[in-house]
User: Fold these one by one.
Assistant:
Number 1:
Amino acid sequence: MSAVSLATDKSPTPHLRRSAAPSLKAGPRFLLLEDDANDTELIRRALKAELNCDLLAVYDRDTYEAALRQSKFDLVLCDYCLPGFGGLEALAFARQCFPEVPVIFVSGGIGEEIAIGGLKAGATDYVLKNHLERLVRAVRRALKERSERARRKRAETRMLRFQNRLVEANKDLLRRNQEIQGFYHTLSHELKTPLTSALEFISILLDGLAGPLEARQREYLSIAHSSCDQLRLCIDDLLDATRLETGKMVLEFKPASLAILAQEIVRSMARKAESKGIQLALEIRPNLPDVPLNQHRITQVITNLLNNAIKYTPPGGRVRVTLQPHGTQPDFIQLTVSDTGCGIPRPERQRIFDRLYQVRNGDAATEQGIGLGLYLCRELVRLHGGSIHVDSELGKGSIFTVLLPRTQQSQHGNVLIIDDDPDVLEMLCSLLATEQYNVHTACDGEEGLREMRRQPADIVILDLAMPKLSGPDTLKVLRQNWGPVPVILHTGFADGDLMKKALAYSPFTLLAKPSTTDQILHTVRKVYRSGDTAIWRRNHLGIPQLVAN
Amino acid sequence: MKKILIVEDDLKIATALGIRLTAAGYDVLRAPDGYRGLQLALREHPDLIVMDIWMPVGIGFSVAQRLKRLSKTRIPVIFITASKLKGLRETVARLGAVAFFEKPYDSKELLATIARELGTEPPLTGSSNRGNEVLGSFQAEAAELANL
């Protein structure tokens, strides 16, 4: 082995202190550790023939380490067998200086085993000196991999930054949501307290507790009282809308007769219609079955529709309420409220159910509310599993049609809960049972699948980390055998790997552990009602990403 | 005459309640916050308490809880509140309260509930023979409130 002088490609004199910054047209910078001058020359030629590169050749441990300490290299080539300095040591030192730098062993007498040992130790590649024609290819591949890795790393960093920002933004939103909740609570309190005292003092006067009243005094007080009542309704609407929007509206359903309800409401509105000279009619098909409903809320819906109808119908007009089974969908009862008012222009028809939307034509302008009535109607009917729509003809009138399901579909569903924690099972079980779901439980994946075979569930709530058959494996079998059954993954996200595995069997819905009872019920209800679950996919970093909802 | 304690921090509402209950033939005591409400309840042993929930000193729930622990006899409690916070109804039920009214409350219903609980005759509405007397006892106060 002969020593050669340290030499770079560009300058014949050795000069280790030159700047790491390459000249303008410079290619990548390579460091070559090779104690044989002839081999150095061969390697240089092989590289220069095809690559525009800057090659610094060093010949022993000291010069090698000095070079790595002082400047930056895109690639290190090194001989495997040097006197007193093994290839593995050279590799370790290069990585210590630049963790990402590709290192290729170039060696004469390297055996397959040694080569593999080198690769195992982290070398990028190895090239035998009698196959130097492979060198350029190996170098190119190493550089490409390196730049790809760097790009990926940059993307990863960016991604993480975005992710952090999202997490922050989410926290911010949650906090703001809480603030808003608090604000509405205060608002409700602050609005209702003075209203209560106004209403109370007016009714104390009306009840004669402060002495007898003259007819005119009584009349004026009645007007004030009804204005306060109107204000109360407005405040209630405002609070309802807020609760609907934040998903806090939870309804209880009981079987009840829509016919009786409609009769009562129509009776209570009769005087109002009469005083405006409007004919109010009610037509009910006999023998209608009871339907599961929240009486208070459906009363609110029908009252609202009737109020609107009377409001927008000129004196001498007709308002009609009908109740019958739906013609083509036997599972629904149909309620209509029709009027002979001014009608609703076509472009407005869809938007009238939007929050805060108001029809701005001449007639309506004089009778404005706060624009929440029909929005609340739609949302409340939806919570019943029903729908609402409007047909209208300008100048002739409008018909609002409400469809309500005969059976409450969001209840009596079969839910299978698979979780190895008996406390979680019991909690979920009793919680869902109160909502009239049929609940089945299993304490591991295998038992869960047996249960599923015995009675297929409408929803599966699945834990991720379980003995015997893990969550993802259970999910896999579920997908194979029961296809799109909605699955709620109930997970603490502690098991990142399990989560990644599970993502292969998306779509599913995520429910964080621990959740509040509200969150649990809301999620189950939503998944049960809409059937479609959010689609999660794993991005290239393995982070769950919501693709569609 | 049955004695009713009103614990309410809003003076206007407290006054309105006072007028109603006096007119209905009850003896009325009033406390402007939870702490004084508890004191008064322990000293005067009212037959029933009508109490707000959110008050500056001592929220209604804790007053009811302490009262249960400290009082030898059970005093029925009716809560009234302007709050729509979830779970209030459940808490009220758990505390063994007689009833729960949301503000603005229906005073006729409130009076009927009180009468039922105390086994008294439901008051006649618009009975104005007591009206003047009631008005007299609250006149000074009403004048004061009007200036607020």
Note: The CA atoms of residues 26 and 81 of chain A lie 30 Å apart.
Number 2:
Amino acid sequence: MSTRSTTPAAGAPLTSGEARTYAAYSKPLWQRVLLTREFAIIAALVAVYAFSYVRVENFDGPLTLYYLFLDVAPILLIALPMTMIIVTGEIDLSVASVVGLSSVLVGILHVDAGLSLPMAALVAMTVGAVAGAVNGFLVAYVGLPSLAVTIGTLALYRGIAVGLLGTEAKTDFPEKWTDLAKQRIVEGQPYPWILLVVAVLAVVFAVLLHFSTFGRGVFEIGLNDEAARFSGVDVARTKLVLFVLAGTISAFAGVYYTLRYGSARGDNATGMELQVIAAVLLGGVSIFGGRGALHGVLAGVLLIGVVTSAMRFNTDLVDKIQIVVGVLLVLSVVSPSFLSWASGLIRGRTGLRSRSTAGTGKRSLP
Amino acid sequence: MSSATRVLSHVVRSRELAVAVVLVALVVVTTLRNDNFLFSPDGWRNLLLNPSMLLILAVGQTAVIITRNVDLSVGSTLGLTAYAVGKLYTTYPDLPVVLVFLAGLVFGGLLGLVNGVLVTFGKVPALVITLGTLYIYRGIFLSWAGSDRITASDMPRDFLALGTKQVLTIPVLTIIALVVLAAVGYYLWTARGGREMYAIGSDPDAAVLYGLQTTKRVLSAFVLSGALAGLAGVCYAARYGSISSGAGRDIELQAVGAAVIGGVAIFGGVGTVWGAAIGAVLLTTINSSLPILGVSDFWQRAVVGALILAAVVLDRVLSARQAKRLAAEREAPTDPPPTASPTRQEVPA
């Protein structure tokens, strides 16, 4: 199955691994690569960036990109495992709560218990992995709906974080570490160190999702978990691994978040789960599972980041950021079914009938 | 089994009763610790008044979840409507209260209609659409309000009095919530439209094949949820008198949580508004009783989370047991047991 195109067209029958289907070869390669959701998002990102650079005052300043990267880094990090989870047709709403919990743990362990910062971070990430494992166990092995489970753990993990620290904030972090979180790779360039971590993890996740047996399994689970099981994919273990990855990386993002703002609070990163999910869906991942690609997701996160930071330069537009993000999200998910409806209308006139592309994959989320 | 005993055994085994028992136990234990919790006039009023808004939201949310959808935008709808009501009063200070409630219902209903149209005609999961409109409605609220906030002085006295007024010691807002609960509960229980919502949630494809008007029903569930969120927004304005741009933030997950605790299955077709309402009361009561029980109220969210998880696990255990019993009754143990879960049972290798 490794030769299967990553952009299966409508109802392409994939009978065997080497099957040359009409749909997969009906267009030249450059069209199949470039005329995709992912490249539409990348094009939008480039267009918005270019527009902002030319037209938005002060956007071309030296600090804009730097702060943009600092701000989107946690979302970029969490979006990586979230993409894989959504591709399997599940969802994890508890990631932001794990960020908060890990932030609180780092604060308590380092400031109060006197652990060294790497040790505290390690403990926090272990707790994050356990938190993810709880989600994964309940979803994969008990078979509960991930939406309900992670709404529960969203409240539970955030509750533990707030319960441990109350409304207090731990701010006593050594400058060595808080500076490191904001350190640039090359002085004078707008690229902070964290971007390197993001890049390495992005490559790892891209290999894992798009170029490994495990990743093929992830897509197959999203398309049909029963068929995946029969073709030898360990469905439950795959899902467990993904949730553990999401927990661990969220905890790492929590450590970064704490150091970047120099403050550990129980309500850190509240609501970030929705930002992450919005970015992943904007990046072309199907909420039904079975479809999506990491380059689209990265572009989706950056697109929201650029739009947000460009609108911040105009005081009249600051309050409209959320409207734009929401409209982008709705448009990006409604447009495929609108387009297929429109193209169905056109083909209907020429006597051809096409099957709707909306709703590929199984439906495991409401 | 006679019908009377059947009804009785149904009630005893029902989820609503189980949650109600937990709620009563919580109230009793808290009252034993501090009898002001129930017997002081303030305690009694707060016990009834605090859950009223979440209860209204949970009722609307239940109708949506039963059709196998979800509405995450209710918090933003609540906030936006509350602000709109405040603005309405600053322009027309002499508006009768009934008209304001009506305006809130209609305004919320329109916002719900947008959700419904996008979900049914866009053929996209409600989770995504309502996540989008959560941002959009909140953004409209933010850009409309800016740093401006509505204060008690912007609204007439008799409207604000509704927020604290009591009839026979029962707060007016609670009565409104109970009327909504009874009406929607009765509709879902007996009316054709209500039963069709259950049918759609149980199996959307079968509902279409059977000839049910799924689009219309799902649309009306979203309109109902939006209208009730609007009503809750009017209640919010009356109760707190001060509306800033944070109004109703994060309440959508509480509403879903209340429904889940009350036995509404997230995959539709199962559950009642009675259960969701008791779940909503339980969630808010935990908030006020934890400090009295000696637990810092910072732990409230953790308790809520644990409750939701417990409810979901319990549902799975019960449905597995029922599936086993049904299989045994059919005297065909080799048949795969039917499962209440919509994800298909994994076949053992």
Note: Chain B touches chain A through 56 residues (CB under 8 Å).
